[in-house]
Sequence to fold (271 residues):
Amino acid sequence: MPELPEVETTRSGIAPHLIGKRVAGVVVRQPRLRWPVPEDLGETLAGRRVLDVRRRAKYLLVDFPHGTLIVHLGMSGSLRVLPADAPPGPHDHVDLVLDNGRCVRLTDPRRFGAVLWTVDRAEDHPLLAGLGPEPLAEAFSAEWLYRRARGRRVAVKAFLMDAANVAGVGNIYASEALFLAGIRPGRAAGRVGLADYRQLAAAIREVLGEAIAQGGTTLRNFTGSDGRPGYFLQMLNVYGRAGQACHVCGTPIKQKTIGQRASCYCPRCQR
Ligand SMILES: [Zn+2]
Fold:
């Protein structure tokens, strides 16, 4: 599943191909994504110039003078920049065709992705309005997490994965950050002290920052036939490693279900 670093890598990959370009049209081969692709999207965007490509949590925001295209990659989506006449595959659902003969193509086998249009400020869209701070932004801090967590009995891992507390920290990065901070995923969020939240906030920045940097080096551009972001797999300490030896102490990694998600941790390194 594309997580925040993959979405950020996608953003930085497609932005230079989009910003300042004019849209010639939109090809919708399959409008039934998580929500229907607006029927009149082609009319809405034709002749309009892209002002910016931003990211909020795991949403890509393509700004036009008269509104914003909101794109979510869902469980399996990816975007590539291709010649507009490149033959589409079976899961190539939407093309944003540019006036330079290229297109940005959305491929999404499982169709949990979304392509939506808003004329309002994108941050006020119902999907985005309730999101907490960006984990790599100034507004995100140990103090913020600590204050939000007071009195909360929810497991700290589920607390981190709740986008109202911090935007876009998925299972992989929550698991890895908790390992680096030495905190067990099942601990009640309200029982984690400020010093531990300091470790945790720093660890979240570290794992996301490293993953973004890695995506940026393994993926030079988004114009190849296989423009899939790298998934940060070699560096994992706990995620997906149940039963394997902890890289630090050798203890077998344990797995437990928290908030319906598999949660891996080292019973010795994490307290
Ligand atoms: Zn360990």
